[in-house]
Recover the amino acids of this structure.
């Protein structure tokens, strides 16, 4: 019987400059003399330790010493940053145990109901990058398919909100509005915030950047002003102007959602429970006390039928009430894009036209923004129910909303040279005479994304016709803008295969499921 | 309106020598001037084309030109091999559409029943490496949680069998046996094959290698003989000896299973439908007409309760009957490992002791092998029901099974220098006086795996005590063998935390759920 002692053999840490997109990945040379690379591989994950710190990572075996030499351990960007020590540092590795919370995921797969602690554990493990993407996929599918009951959604929301920072504005009415997404060009926040802030109500709006959609509020605002505000700056802007339009990323609010999206989007799954927990946890973490939720309904919207919209509304209300948020839901017309532009520059143009009372301003964007702003204003106990719309219109038409927007832009930091629409353009034409009877939101999003939005601010789509418009064969329906040749060709190629527009008889014009 | 034309810009192909373990991965430099790397990333997958051939791959963005330069496209091992062109070749990339069969997966998530065509599509897409690991995880969890009804399992089995090659032996009785796995040391195939072949019945056994268990039949047979047989060689051996013990990998039978295992194991999910489809599709592809399935039941076996074993038996019977396979199921005692050795060398030693009628031979392995061989022999219409066991025992005790095994070893190619048990050893001792009341199969598998089995043939565990044995405090329960220091320490570390043995009173000795 031989004696055994603790191994004193370490690997030398190396940074492998690869962005593995929300997954920790480690690289070990197949000729490593200390650890048997293949022995780790089938179990998929290893635990890397240095001092008292450790991270989990999926293992890839490398055969090329230019990437990782035998005796080295390579870590891709995210894992390297998380470990937080310098290249060349000695590290040890071990077979990783499955993250403990995967037991809860397996119970969910088996059909169990999860407890508040289960959601806390799962959330913490994912935020600490202990899950591989396949484990995240397992959790998302299990929660989607088995369904989360409304109390589970509540626990999940709470766990997500607890997983990051929280903002506290020290006021009793902190307003916010949020749309569940899916409708191109729907940039009402950039109108609601200046209107509401001009009234004096606090509305510190933090938004996400688009991931696979062609523009988020943060991307669009960035055409006009700085949006990456450090916490102190954010507070200064809000204190001075009563509102802001900033990117929420720097504030680290409910970070779980930003990670899961890397799995949700490629899988194309979007469950109600996940949606409610994602949105409300962000708002809870952002310190909102009063919240207006916009649920657009339409054949190519996220929510396609009225009964689903009502179901979603009830779930928002149930969870919101129990979190102590004053929450209201409006169901809106989601048949087609809002406004004309799709993509940051084009959407910012629409917003500024509305604020400037430009006769060219898209009236649907104006109407929707006034309606939402009116509802937010009615959170103010001094405003009589039903009078919010008229007050919002007064603020907009008097130029006070524009003045407030300009003040917010100045406070956040104005962009000196505003980007322009992309110079590569292509117009998609009607194939027959008739009326525009429907526009496919999903397809318009996809064309604008392929064109390069939101990374190229000027890329996107400019709609020249909307539902109900009469068109002649050969007349332009919309214009694609791009800056990058490869992107331009991808976007034009898709539009050529499917324009996203249906042209037909007047009597077939799609009617809205709700008043627009 | 600008003119557009097809892009003639290509990337230069580069092989990035990384084994990404059953996932196609591509690498693009963030400074690439032709394609915008980040634009592809969120959607996760790209399609790489050259001539009329294309592959899908998950994209990683690289910041280091030593890995991939701007203007190059890197492909990891599997994707590079699949594309099948030389480094430096010009390739194009495009945004990949989600594999079409993911629609079926999303329907399964939503609770739908899938059609034979759905399973064919899913199987083909996965075998062609069109799924990312998270997509495979989504499919597995959806199929597991929502459940597959028995007709879906039948469709799935058929689709899996169709996904690879098929063997045809041109005989009316082609026997096989298969255990669902999970029990360490359970190497009965290496006894059943020589017994049955010595009788003259055709039994061309192809087995898998262990993935996360410490030894498969192919790994253990490889201690004695070549197992990587090319199709012609395989047929020659079988025609000459009426049996073989070869690795099934070279024959490319139902390859889907070998891919999915890269996701199933790390997730730790193992559904009945998946198990039945995996096993029967392999057997169908291997040309078996008569099949004996071994389902061990025990507290730490894959199947833990008798009613589950019966449920699984019915599912095997339902699918087997509809595939035209003569199928029988035996439910066996799965309380503890079979024989003494765990790991290729130690298990091969047990098998040879039984064949050599060595008085040291583990009697449980002998008994179980005779029982199974007897049942297989009864597939022969000339053998009276119930007399198989005695015939098997005659064949074994007369030395005819040993002679047949040696002939098979010669035919496949004998290993001249048989590997020996690992030289690093550690004995795990009883912490108290008493009786061995239970042994944890899962833990013994894990200790032997950590020790380096099956890669190090001599690594593993040698059991010195079994359930029911009396032990004194300090007496050795089992011996760990390893060849590699790091592995040795991992295995000893685990055994120190949990030996896997429960020592207690005689009256608490675990009793078998079925006759052993």
């Amino acid at each position: 019987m031989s004696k055994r002692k603790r191994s004193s053999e370490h690997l030398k840490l190396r940074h492998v400059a690869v962005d593995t997109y929300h997954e920790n990945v480690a690289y070990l040379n197949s000729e490593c003399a200390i650890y048997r690379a293949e022995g780790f591989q089938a179990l998929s994950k290893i635990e890397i330790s240095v001092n008292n710190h450790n991270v989990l990572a999926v293992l890839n075996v490398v055969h090329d010493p230019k990437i990782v030499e035998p005796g080295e351990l390579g870590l891709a960007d995210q894992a390297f940053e998380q470990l937080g020590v310098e290249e060349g540092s000695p590290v040890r590795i071990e077979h990783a145990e499955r993250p403990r919370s995967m037991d809860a995921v397996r119970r969910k797969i088996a059909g169990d109901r999860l407890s508040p602690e289960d959601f806390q554990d799962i959330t913490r493990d994912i935020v600490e990058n202990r899950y591989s993407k396949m484990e995240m996929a397992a959790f998302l599918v299990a929660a989607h398919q088995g369904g989360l009951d409304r109390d589970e959604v509540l626990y999940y929301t709470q766990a997500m909100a607890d997983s990051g920072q929280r903002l506290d504005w020290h006021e009793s009415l902190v307003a916010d509005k949020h749309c569940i997404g899916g409708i191109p060009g729907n940039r009402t926040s950039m109108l609601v915030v200046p209107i509401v802030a001009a009234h004096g109500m606090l509305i510190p709006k933090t938004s996400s950047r688009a991931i696979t959609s062609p523009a988020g509020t943060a991307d669009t605002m960035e055409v006009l002003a700085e949006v990456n505000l450090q916490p102190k700056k954010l507070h200064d802007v809000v204190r001075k102007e009563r509102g802001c339009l900033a990117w929420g990323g720097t504030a680290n609010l409910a970070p779980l959602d930003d990670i899961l999206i890397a799995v949700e989007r490629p899988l194309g799954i979007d469950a109600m429970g996940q949606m409610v927990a994602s949105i409300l946890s962000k708002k809870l973490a952002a310190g909102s006390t009063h919240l207006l939720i916009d649920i657009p309904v339409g054949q190519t919207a996220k929510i396609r039928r009225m009964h689903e919209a009502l179901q979603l509304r009830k779930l928002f209300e149930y969870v919101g009430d129990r979190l102590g948020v004053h929450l209201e839901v409006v169901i809106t017309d989601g048949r087609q894009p809002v406004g004309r532009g799709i993509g940051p520059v084009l959407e910012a143009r629409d917003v500024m036209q509305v604020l400037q009372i430009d006769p060219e301003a898209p009236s649907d964007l104006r109407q929707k923004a006034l309606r939402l702003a009116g509802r937010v204003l009615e959170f103010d106990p001094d405003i009589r129910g039903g009078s919010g719309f008229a007050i919002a219109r007064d603020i907009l038409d008097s130029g006070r909303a524009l003045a407030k927007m300009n003040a917010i832009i100045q406070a956040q930091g104005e962009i000196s040279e505003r980007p322009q629409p992309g110079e590569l353009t292509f117009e998609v034409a009607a194939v027959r005479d008739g009326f525009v009877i429907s526009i496919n939101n999903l397809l318009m999003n996809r064309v604008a994304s392929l064109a390069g939005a939101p990374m190229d601010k000027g890329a996107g789509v400019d709609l020249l016709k909307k539902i109900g418009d009469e068109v002649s064969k050969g007349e332009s329906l919309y214009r694609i803008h791009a800056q990058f040749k490869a992107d331009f060709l991808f976007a034009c190629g898709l539009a050529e295969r499917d324009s996203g527009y249906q042209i037909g008889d007047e009597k077939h014009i799609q009617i809205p499921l709700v008043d627009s």
Summary: Residues 11-95 of chain B form a domain with the Barwin-like endoglucanases fold (CATH 2.40.40.20). Chain B touches chain A through 80 residues (CB under 8 Å).
